[in-house]
Structures are given as structure tokens and as C-alpha cells.
Specification:
The complex is a heterodimer of chains A (510) and B (326). Chain A is built from 16 helices and 20 strands. By secondary structure, chain A is an alpha/beta fold. Chain A is globular and about 70 Å long. The N terminus of chain A is likely disordered. Chain B has a single domain, classed as Aldehyde Dehydrogenase, Chain A, domain 1 (3-Layer(aba) Sandwich), CATH 3.40.605.10. In chain B, strands 7-6-5-8-9 form a 5-stranded parallel sheet, with helices on both faces. A 3-stranded antiparallel sheet of chain B has the order 3-4-10. In chain B, helix 5 packs across helix 6 and helix 5 runs antiparallel to helix 9. The N and C termini of chain B lie far apart (60 Å). Classes of the chains: A alpha/beta (510), B alpha/beta (326). Chains A and B meet through helix 1, helix 9, strand 18, strand 19 and helix 16 of A and strand 4, helix 11 and strand 10 of B.
Amino acid sequence: MTAMATETDRRMVPAVDRAPSSWGLGDGQAIPWEYAPAPESADIVTIKERYGLFIDGREVAASDGGVFATVNPATEGILAHVAKATAADADKAVKAARRAQTRRWGNLSGKERAKYLFRIARILQERSREFAVLESMDSGKPIKESRDVDVPLAAAHFWYYAGWADKLDYAFPGRVARPLGVAAQIIPWNFPLLMLSWKIAPALAAGNTVVLKPASTTPLSALLFADVCRQADLPPGVVNIVTGPGEIGMSLVTHPGIDKVAFTGSTEIGKRIARGVAGTDKALTLELGGKAANIVFDDAPLDQAVEGIVNGIYFNQGEVCCAGSRLLAQESIVEPLIAKLKDRLATIRVGDPLDKNTDVGAINSKSQLEKITELVASGVAEGAELYQPACELPDRGYFFRPTLFTNVAQSHRIAREEIFGPVLSVLTFRTPDEAVEKANNTVYGLSAGIWTDKGSRILEMVGKMRAGVVWANTFNRFDPTSPFGGYKESGFGREGGLHGLLAYVRLEDR
Amino acid sequence: MATPDRRKPSPARSGRSRAIAGRAGSAAAAAVPARLEVRKTYKLYIGGAFPRTESGRSYLVSAADGTPLANACRASRKDLRDAVRAARKAFPDWSGKAAMNRGQVLYRVAELMEGRREQFAAEVSVAEGLAPAAARVVVDRAIDRWVWYAGWADKIGQVLGSSNPVAAPYFNFTIPEPTGVVGVVAPETSSLLGLVSRLAPPLVTGNTVVLIASERRPLPAVTLTEVLATSDVPGGVVNVLTGRKAELIPVLAAHSDVDALDTWGVPDELRLETEQSAAEDIKRLLRRPTTVNEARFDWLNDRIAERPEWIAAFLEMKTVWHPIGG
């Protein structure tokens, strides 16, 4: 059933430097070989000392000249200074977007819009390594992931939605799809370029123009994307990018010139944004936090499940809204599963994001590292059992060991709160009903994983999960054609696929 | 908009049923009747039962011409919470029914309404000040609207679901599922047709509903609950409260076990507060556009009043990834 998944997963397994117990050398014993460093060259990227805002097709300084530093979380060194937008800049960007929408982009034929988006997709592919390196430097994610996941998926997203631009008449039966107008889009720091593509591609395909605010710790790939827009000859004002703190996002949300707000980020900020659009006609989509259950039944192929669990929670340092942060293991297999998991953790390589062998890179920021540290301390204080592999961490930078908690109760903070770090909480269950009960016992509902060999059980569990994405015998898969989004306090609206297009159109009668 | 001709209803001409005959002091009651009519007590509808409000309060409901009609329950915060509990309890069974079965159950509501056409027409005529003929048009349309929505039960999944051609060896599909407990604030003006047009869309896919009826014109809603109670719609699937909107809406909007709100009938002055409150737990909102005047919306126009989008507003899309290959 899962040969392909296994094959895919196997590529992610690095050679071990500590022996799994199954090798008979003893738990966690060092194997006498070491990896040579395999650094990706940073030469391909030219990082400027200063970056301006991207408004109306031009790079401009903030109205008050303000800047802020963006830091490489793996070195704590400053990468660049970036313009810190003011409310006046946000207003300028919204007005530029409105002009572009009414005078140019909104009237352009779908065919022409499609060609611009195809161009952007192609340029992203052409400059993919440049983006991957820059993304890893600014965000701390391993080059392996930025190179193989983030950037290719971002390009694929533009490619997919490009083809919709001239086929809107076929998308929604009985309805004419009109653009909403100007979209304010606020994106997080965990997948900066990928989230940009999830936001901008469907918006532009449907004839909207956008003002995008990247996260303040990861502005650089968005600002490099501004250069892609210029290379693609995208008309000025169609894409505007304003960098700065969260208040700039809120000034966009509450700006009267905005027709649509799309936000990806924490549930807490999502609620503020929902309050911000209350009483207006602004359309809203929210992609918020999660606390996904990854459910392993006793008939699951365990080695494969271990790979899925590792991919589920340690991918991108666990800084993933749909991360499988709660492992629900059936009691009869808990012991062998945890043993295998600990073996596997011993082989995870934490370190330099630009090293091609690195599995877990740097935590995105100091404040995020502090949050993870605080929540892990709460896990210990509340009585859960902590396990961390004995890996060495770099001297500088924001790093955190892959962490596994056993003996976790549902009431523990580490079982309830989104940690957004490489921290797995293991809970157990006896019956499928208990698994359902525990999996759904959260305010979130973004994703879930199910590991079992039995197809009918998969489909039954699928039906009972109150979650927007369910992975069966796999985890953390993404595709531009596949709708993604949450139930409950994980938000509403979908990104990806035809459903993602719906979030950027107004349906009118034919 | 089609504006039915209005005229002052009188008991004789509107042909309204005895159940809502005028109270003492009205023209009809002034004469000594040959037989004293048996009046109906208008109650709440919660969990399939007809309780009076636990608060013991009522308010006087009048006809469009000001004639007093009846005392309706003035539901309390606690009644609303009871209704939400009943709706939550009914959700697994209702959402778990086969789609075609749910469609048949809702179709039967239309069948039973058909049997009460005259009663509904009389009530709507009095409540909305419509001439009998115009009221009959409204009632017939309300029945037809049930039929239209009932038919969507086993089709909406095919229209809104998808299989997604992902670039990896997975079978990937997206299916709609009901959101859960939906709070519906019914239109204030259109007491039956507007109500049905808001109630049917969340119901047809398996959501359960707590509905706040029109404050000034609640009696047709109460009569509809009598239809629901004698249909095959399980108790708790629809719960109907009458009372003061300003008192009930904030409780509904703030209730953390309500997953979504249809705010169509929320008065403009409560809109901001309601939506802010709903933001606290990321409730899904179906909002009446600020440009649409509730009292002027043309519920008789099928083109604008029958919308699959209103069904979709109370659906969650679930995407499933399943590996392909042995």
C-alpha cells in the first residue's frame, strides 16, 4: 500500500551516526563515522545592505525613513536592514493596488493574467537555488527543505493558479466569478516564500491586486520576489509588499480600501483580525494554529510510521501549523514504537541550515526559542517525561534539540498548546473511539494523521476527525491542487485547489 | 422586488384561524361568540419539546395593523443555552444520516407544510399585513423552497467536493462536512419565507440549528415548529426561540459551542458587536451584505434567494491524502 511513501520517506533518512538498538550495538552508541560538512554555497545570493518597500512597482524607503534588522537565526548575525513601513506607507500601497486593480489588472483578459503568472512560475524555477539559500539564511530552515519543498511548491502554486486565470468561467457552475478587488495578505515566518505564493497566486489569477505583509523576521524572500515581479514585467501596483511589525498588518486589515483579508498565523492574532473586519463587507480567510494528532494503530507498519512521525513534527523544526505534535499510539505498540522513535531521533542532524545534510535547522527567532523553551519546561514541571537525543548544538544561533515527551496527560500544556517547535507529546489509547475522542479534544482542527494497514479503518477515522487535512499513512504532504485549511479555531477558508480560488472571487448570477 | 399589495387585515377578510383571533377589546371579541374559541399557547421549541421559557416571561405580539394577537415566550439566556445543548446532542445522528435520507426527511417538511397552507397563509397575512392572495404566494414559495433545498442533500457533495490531481502517488480528495451547531438569526420582516430560506441551507447538509425567530412576527415560526415536531426531523435538530433579539443575539454570538452564525436577521445596530463577539472563537459567519436592506430583500425571487453558497457557508472542506501503491 505504501511502497511509494516509503521510498519518498527513505530519501529523507540521513545515514546514522548513532546506532539504532536494532543494530545490536547498544542504544544510542556512536558509530565510528562522521559526516564531512556539505555546505551549500551562499554565493548565489546577493543580499543588499538595505531593502525598501515595494509599492507601485518601485522600491521605496519608509515614509519616516525607519528600518529594522533581519537576522540569520543560525548565526545571530544581521543579514540586512529593511524598511519599516508606517501606516502612511500601508495607505500608499493600498491606493497603488486599487489603481492597478481598477485601471489595469482587473480589466486584463484572463489569458494575459495567466501568462504573467506562468512567467512568475518560470522565473521562480530559474532562480530556485537563489531563493532556497536566501530562505534558509533568513528563516533558519534546512537547505534540504527550502530547496526540495518550499521553493518548488511555491513555483508550482503559481503554475497551478496561472492556468485558472483564463478558465474562471468553468470554475463555479451557474456563476460568474468576479475579483473581490484589493487583498491584504499577512503571512507568517515558517514558510515565507511558500505562504507568499499561496496568497498571491490565487489572488492575481482571479483579477485581484494585493498588498502583502511578510513576517518581520523573514522579509527577504518576499523582497526578492519583488524583483521577480519586475523581471516578469508585472504591471506596477499589482503586487505591493510592505515590511514591518504586526501593527502594519492591522492597519491593512482595518484600511477601508481593502476588500479581502487573508491571514496565516497564530489563532490569537487571527481573532484580532476577525474583530478588525467585523461590521464590514470585507471577505476573510484565516489559516491559524493547530495541535494535530498523529494516530498510530497497532497494525501500522511501524518503521514507516516512525518516518511519518519524524517528518510530522521535526520537519521545519516543528514550526508548522499542521505539525503532528501529538502522537497518539495504541497501547499495545507504544513500547516498540517509542524505542524505534528514540533510535531514529539519534540519527537526526541538527545544525547549520545551509548544510545539505542538516535535518533540523535553526529556530526562527530568539523569542520563538524562548517560547519553546518555556513550554518544554512546563512539560517537565507538569510531570511528563522528557527525552532528547545527545546531539551537539552549534555554539551560536537559536537551536533546540528534537524533543520527545512521554507520559503526557491531555491536561498538560504541551498537549493543549501549539508549541511551534520540535517537540512531540506522546499520548496513548486503547480503542479507536478513544483515539477519536482524544484527537478531537482540542480547540484546533487543522490536520490529523492516521497510521494503519486497514483501508476501511482509515476511511472511518477520516470521517471522524474534525480536521481539515487528514493524512493516511503519510504526513505533511502539500500540493497546489490540494485544498488546505482548518476546522474550528484553526480558521476558515481553504488555500490550494479550486477551493483556494473561491476565496478570492465574488460569485454573481449569470 | 415584488411588493405584495398590503391592506388592513381584519379577522373576517383575512380568514385567519381562530387560534390567533384577537384579544379582548378587538372588534372580533366585542361580540358575544356562539362558541368560545380555544386559543393556542405559543411556546419555544427545544430538543423536540415545547417548553415555555424558563424565565416565565412573555411579550405581546401584534398584527401588522396593531391588533394584539398573542403572548409569545420571551426566551432567556438559559433557554438559549438549553437549545444549544439540544442542538449539539442532535448533531452526530443528523449529520450521520445518509444524505438521501436527510433529503427525504426535509422534503417531508414541505409535504406537511402543504397540509397547513391555509393556516400559514392566515398567519403570514396577519403578521406581515399581506392580502390573503399575496400571503398564499409567500407560503407556497416557502414550501417550494424546502423542496429546492431538500434536493441538494445528496448533490452538494458532488458539486463542492473534488478529487485533486496531486503531483505525487497519492489519491487526494476533498469532501464537504457540516460545520456543527449553527445559530440562525431569522429575518425580521419575512416571517416565514425568509425564515425557511435561512433555515434550510444549514440543515440540508447535517448541521443542527438554534434559530432566533423574527421578534415582531414570531408566530409563523412557532407554527413551523409544530410542523417540524410532527415530521421526521429528529428533536434537537431545529430549535426555535422567540423573544428579544437584542437580548438573545449576544448570548448566541458569544456561545462557544455554536460553530457558525447566520447573521442575516441581526439588526444593523447589533452587527458590529455580534461579529466581534463571534471572532472570539473563530465562528464562521454568513453575513448579510451591508448594502442589503433586510426589509427590502426579495425572498420571492428564486434567482437571488436560492443559493448553494448559503449551503456552502456551513460546510467544512476536508482533504484526505491516501498513498497509492502496494
